[in-house]
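Please, structure for the following, as tokens.
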Amino acid sequence: MKILLISPFTNASGSAIRFWNIALTLQKRGHQVIYVDRKSPDCNQLFFSTSIKYHTCPSSGIQVIDIFYSLLFNFFILLKNLDAAIVYALKPAPNNCIPAIFAKLLGKKVMLDVDDLDYAYLSGWKKHLFRILFDFFSQRFAVVTYHTPNLKRYLHEKVGIPKSKLYYLAQGVSTNFLDIDLDHLNPIKKSIIYVATLGITSDFADLIPKLSILCKNHPDMTMNIVGDGCRKKEFEELIAKQGLENQIHFAGKIDHDRLPHFIARHQIGINYMRSLEVNRCRAILKIREYLACGLTVVCNDVGDVELFKEHIFIETEIENLFLRLDNLLSSPLEINYAGRKMIEEKYAWKDIIEEFDTNVIFRCH
């Protein structure tokens, strides 16, 4: 079956990893897949595949122009692929949902994936406008996929989507993380890793005062911050101001292909987000990736962390999170085989898409 997947965002967004894995796995199951997105600001192509037709909309560097250009570009790709049986819009946004709704008028089966409350990162009139668009587009699809229990509750109770239209499409882990051989790991002792986008949504600054105490208590510990974003320089300056630059290092953005091996060099992975509605609806990919690499994981109780409660340490307060880190750094740590096994059993894309293909896509034939 020919399936057209349209992402409204650039390939530099965190959601791009989810969307590309959906596309790859559908192709491996025998579907003909066309994937469309917008180029990242640096104009680099993020994904490569000889088996998927990948189209990325050129970028002017001006967001408003790029979104409008993306709308026209997505219509162009749709018209070139009118033989597609399914159009799968990835996120409720105008530049991909308008072409998808047009495809619906042509008799195509259309689906929508909602993986975040994107409007919540905005403010003022922009937030209000994009909230209206989020609700409007989300209500126009016969199948809406989601990835956390809290997001399902939000889509049903606040957006008004009937439960019969909602389908749980779990957040999986890329195959290269599951290729890591835990039996041959030799992680750096007393090492911590924090992987996140260091942009406007980052809450990393909340951790810095406590990190100062942790480093003083454990002068032999090291920590790597992986990620890039508009606040990276600000965080680097805050770390330097605290005199922590010898223990806490900013590794920058690491290619997704290299990331599993880099994560696996550490013993502890941490995740922290403020308790906001937008964060409570998120699926935390980094926890899945930490566990796939055999790390001990410490996080606060935001997002879908309850799904992993048997294999991670969940703390309700930031003070307790750092007490847990202090205790772990004072104790010998073993590779988290049980956490890895859970990821293999429940969050491999192959199994997730097989069920999706059988229960949803096959019925569209």
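The chain has a mean pLDDT of 91. DSSP finds 14 helices and 13 strands in the chain.
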